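Run log, item B.
One chain of 393 residues. Sequence copied directly from the ordering sheet:
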Amino acid sequence: MWSEKYRPESLEEMVGNEEGRAKLLLWLRKWKPGAKAALLLGPPGTGKTTTVHLTAGKLGLQLVELNASDSRTKERLSKRIGEAISSSSLFGGGSLIFLDEVDGLAGRADYGAIDFIKDAVRRSESPVVMAANDPGSDEVKKLGSSTMKIEFRKPELDQVEKRLETIAAREKAGMGKEELAKIAKAANGDMRAAINFLQSGIPAQKDEELTAAESINAFFEALDEKAALRALRAYPGQPREKLRDIFVAVARSRVHEERKAAALEVISRADVIMGRIMRGGDWRLLRYLDPMLASDLWRALGDGGLRYTLDAVPWPLQLRIWNDSKKLKEIALLSGRRLGTSQKGFLVQDMPYLLRMCAEKEFRGEFVRSLNLEENYEEFLAKEAVRGSRRQV
């Protein structure tokens, strides 16, 4: 993959966040036992992990990389990261402990995970750096005064464009400045996504400014395949989100069952392609996704009649999500990460369907185990599934 091939090999080669990188480097040089941990905050694709790796290399520190979302209770943290934090001298020489995705501890502070991390940082014989995508998460707030926060922002559009120009020239991609500018804009500050778009060979992910709903509805209302393709390429988000939005609209529609079945079959084939892209990193396959949808799905839907709306969650469920269900939010966060979407996106688009499927005991149990959730979540989902079925009556 080009995103790996052109991963920066030094801090100087990185794009954007000069202040944040300099702040981390200075903090590490001045670090003493008992000091606070550094907490890097910013959206995916802004260079947090790469910065940690390159900074460790620059200072000659052995990097010990751990993932907090894999160990969400005090007991699991003790087994999987406790020894590394408190006994890092076993690795020999200077070490740097990197604890990624601390906002993946969602809803587990009651089990002592956050307090354990705070205590381990105070006892650590080596500097500890943490990273999180969501600065507003409860976990980040609870870490509070025990960390020094360093903000990472999306790089400027012109910085992304210059990096793409360099890569395109080396790979002889044959794209002009206007096409590269569209790719940079479509990536929305995510450098990895921008490079993946470039490798896929798609000139741009959008031809004009449209919202997600406008793009999907323009696809449904297209008079021919060319118009359908233009509408899909005008979608403002990532390919996975676009496919999910189309699925939501088709699944919720009242079109004839034969048409719906044919459309869902096409979406299923598109999802297989998307899965291969996500698992294997072969972004060249992305060039086939929109044309296939514009051809096969557009024909399967026939004379249209579909509409897409962002407000896909029934009002009673919205109240449950907003007012009193930390469990629903945690499930959405963990599921969203698996699917490559945001917590909010999963709540709005996928949660209603998940709760319906959780009416089946076998599915419910397997789902809870797949996310490594506590046993009481299975009972919780069973109750939510019953509530959902009552609302449909």
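Observations after the first pass:
- The two ends are 50 Å apart (CA to CA).
- The CA atoms of residues 277 and 284 lie 8 Å apart.
Flagged for discussion on Thursday.
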